[in-house]
Design goal:
It contains four helices and six strands; from the N terminus they run αααββαββββ. The chain is an alpha+beta fold and 185 residues long. α3 crosses α4. The protein is globular, with a radius of gyration of 17 Å.
Amino acid sequence: MRVPMRMRRFILAAATLLPSCLLAQSGLDPFKRGVPTASSPLTEPTLSPGALQLLTLEGEFAQAVAKGGGAAFAAWFADDAVTLNNGKMPVLGKAHIAEKATWKPNEYQLTWQPENAQMGPSGDMGYTWGHYDGTSKDRNGNPVVIGGRYITIWKRMPDGKWKVAMEASAEEPAAAGECCKLPAP
């Protein structure tokens, strides 16, 4: 089977999301291979205009969800979008994503910080990735906090608006320690 160039680029880009300890276990050293580390417009002013556009979109997405909860979360997805979350079945389609995303911001607070972005060569698709935190309370009112990594794949729709094509997240293990932390710039 021949893999289209766009898919090969995505696969290579997604490989950069693996924690360095996992890459080291696989025999790859991301620092010797030139794999980029987390960036921001403040620490790396050479980010492309496309990456800056995606980081801006991701920031707007995060702000909307902080204010509007699950309904705001689902509103950002394309009709044919997919979510892939830790230990759960894939959710296919915006309508099904909306059925699952019913939380209110006063019950569950989902926050995230994009750490990097890359725009595809055609300028109509790209991705952002970073760290997320989810906070809520258990039945006894005790705080429950989860956190992990996410990737958002964005696509430009025919009307020029950007929508989420896919969102995937994975919780970081409680005892991740130094293994899964990004190196300091």
